[in-house]
Amino acid sequence: MLVIPQAKPQSPFFKVFVPGNTPVHHHDKIECQCPTTGNKASGICLGIITEYWENVPRWMCHETYGLPKDELRKKLETDIPAFKSVDTVKILIIKQN
Order of strands, edge to edge, in the sheet holding 13-19? Predict the structure, then answer.
């Protein structure tokens, strides 16, 4: 086992995936609402990465949503129909308020 002398980061930053054609810009105010619980988180968009699904790193899907990439894509396409019509995804880096 590798022991690293660091604590788990406590960060105000988080990521969300949106369809690649979503109109979003740096410094836009973003509100995310969990469709299951209704919990909300809001913040400012500090970064935008646009990628084809096949280029999205598997680790990023696991880190962000806890799901393998193929499973995440299917879930997002089911829950958010706009994902079905595009081959790209925007990964938003958000600083929570």
Answer: 13-19, 88-96, 40-52, 29-33
3-state secondary structure 26-58: CCCEEEEECCCCCCEEEEEEEEEEEEEHHHCCH
Q: What is the pLDDT of residues 14-54, one digit of tens each?
A: 999 999 999 999 999 999 988 788 899 999 999 999 999 99
Q: Is the dihedral of CA 81, 85, 91, 97 positive or negative?
A: negative
Q: Give pTM, 2 decimals.
A: 0.88
Nearest to 94 by CA among 58, 60, 46: 46
The Cα 73–Cα 84 span in angstroms is 9
